[in-house]
Structures
1.
Amino acid sequence: MKKRPILFDIKGLEARIKLDSSRLDTVEYHKKFEGAVKQLIKEIVGDKFQLKANVTRENTFSISISALPANGGTKNYQINFDVGLFRMLYDGLYILLSNNNTFSGMGISHLKFDIPTLNVPDWNSLDLAMANNEDVHFSAKRVTLHSFLYDLCLSFIIRHEIRHIANGHVDYLLSNNNVALFFENSSNGLNYLDSQTLEMDVDSCVTAGILDGLLNNELQKEQIPDELKGTREIFICVLFCLQFLFFCMPSVKITHQKNTTKNTHPNSSLRHFFCFTTAIGYLQDNFPEYVDLFVTLNKENFWEFIMGLPDANGLDISKIEKDFEWTHSDEGVAYADKVWDNWNNLKPLLEKYAYLKLAPLN
Ligand SMILES: [Zn+2]
């Protein structure tokens, strides 16, 4: 007989569920993932191009995009996501949500993971650390929360890659920069400033897209768990995901202007800053009544999130603090302006390849 899923926690009688990221490496999950990509493609670009999603098992963090032969006149791309990325997202969230102070009241974890750091190069290292921990069980509500945040983070990443195509980046680079494949973690032949400007462009579009999906798109609103349907709860989830993606996934932390020249992506705090300012801009244009709430929730939760990270020796948090400090210094703010201004140089080059209207010049 099939086991019936437990949907609700009854006080004192909570379900005890152990999460297992190996479920992300099954044919069934890969199908679900392909379905999610299809749904997002439809939402973002309609039928302007086709995208075949492929899951690889290199256990790295790699994402790449290639052009395929056109399919009946419609341009066709293939995107490769490594399953190690899925598992890292899944397990990273498992670790953070094992702390009952995070999203308190939304289910419980029976034990907190005792992991020294989330700052690991790949999923395998995280898996090793988790295997040395006692089993951690979540109540049903906590599982629902975990699953929603996982889907939200994954949606951010899929949207990010779709935007690299939709905004013309991929075709521009494949046509002009002598690269056969677009690699997310490479400069793709660009200088650091151009590469970071393209990342700023997609991150900004994605943030607006995520908010619009959760606030405006009926299909996506239906997928939000009942307890998280309120605007306040939606914003807390979005802010949490932005922090998780930029500060807990492999990312760049810097302390000086000179470090910016080594990176293909803006540093963690700068990516967060670009997304946060885009979110404010989106809300000002579409839901001005929510701007204050979003700003207040970010203020209330930002440092609480950082201070709640597993950090046995204090190194990770101190790196984040320094990265944040530099980004919000005069030098950091001037650098953010430089990236924004550089959009004026890139936009005219990309327009010919873009499937969607690009953001206006600064
Ligand atoms: Zn990117």
2.
Amino acid sequence: MAQTVKIQPDIQFIRELREAGGDSLKACYQCATCSVACPISPQSNPYPRKEMVWAQWGLKDRLLSDPDVWLCYNCGGCSDLCPRGAKPGDLMAALRNMAYKRLVTPSIIGEWMSSPKYLPILVAIPMVIFAIFWMIMASVNFHGNFTGGMFPTGQIVYGKIFYGDYIIDPFFMATLGFTLFTFYRGVKKLIAEIGPKGATTILGPKKAWYICLLEVLFGEIMTHSKFTECGDDSEKNSRKIGHMSLFYAFVALAIVTGCVATGHWIGRIPFLSMLYLDTPLPMWHPLKILANVGLVLMLVGLSYLTIRRVGLNPKKQKSNYYDWYLIGVIWFVGLTGMFSQLFRLADWVAPAYIVYYFHLVSVFMLFAYLPWSKLGHLVYRTAALTYVRYIGR
Ligand code: HEM
Ligand code: SF4
Ligand code: SF4
């Protein structure tokens, strides 16, 4: 017997989606060329045509719980071939942007991250915090380091002003804790929303979730295999080289930071004192070399991704504020990191401390707001890819 299905379009949602980058969705006439063109879309229930249809109908609930949004690699191949210029790739990106905004609280941060008009607030928060730290250290004789004012004389050691042990380290540890806890809530919500959608019957024993995670990490993320599969031939290499360089830059810098922090604290235990590390590390130290390799990889990756983005044809694929915020902040982190080192080696006191101050500001902007920024994909994509593998999509 025929059943009546009641559809309730959410007009406000369509408006928000268009603002977040899905502005061309009305042009779609549902021919499905995009789903056929997408090289990584599965055969059953392929994307992105169905998302275009749901978006036109304002079917918010379906779209918000759709795991496929996180499987799309934003290569733009589908948009290139769309006969109506409807940019389905941009719609998938817009849906991810909306997810960054709504998945976790406090939602005000999501609001601030969604538009350049709030950028001054996002910059002002760390500027004020680190300025207060600076003022305190410039005015008190803390741990006997006081050397008279804003720019301590003698060898440039950033810890003289941005004191690691009891100010900067605990502050960044708290920030990291906040970010990780926020991601934990975000992933929990994401998985709950997806639920069993797209699941297939798995013959034989079901794989444990951590096996699926390892397969995703080693089979897809570390090799960047999907970057090779999708996109047009002329630019997929630059995307892959750009993303891979940046990814391994972060891996290298995470290893360095982890080792330095561990050595710094563990090395205080008397029988482990040979592990003690303090900054600045000498230039020949293996961790310093790894840090500089990471820095070079970061600048190379950023150059590739920026050149590619600047060269995009806006009729096929548009860049939005989420794209530029992320690339911009990582540039800021990389360049201020590089100049902090160069000015310190050149013994250029005032510029060195000022640039280092901005380095801390940009690092905070990258990590404290991470779950609401486009870099949130680092966790949400990994979680969705693992989960769909687990349920057999
Ligand atoms: C440290 C880790 C990571 C960093 C620093 C990073 C950085 C970036 C950056 C800057 C972009 C923007 C490129 C552009 O605007 O053209 C990007 C895009 C992308 N990343 Fe990552 N990423 C990381 C981890 C991951 C992981 C784990 C995945 C999992 C599959 C992933 C998949 C992607 C995809 C598919 C895109 C293109 C989609 C888009 O631009 O919306 N990334 N990444
Ligand atoms: S987005 Fe374009 S290619 Fe895809 S179904 Fe609509 S009109 Fe066809
Ligand atoms: S942007 Fe690329 S990965 Fe995403 S749906 Fe289109 S063709 Fe597929």
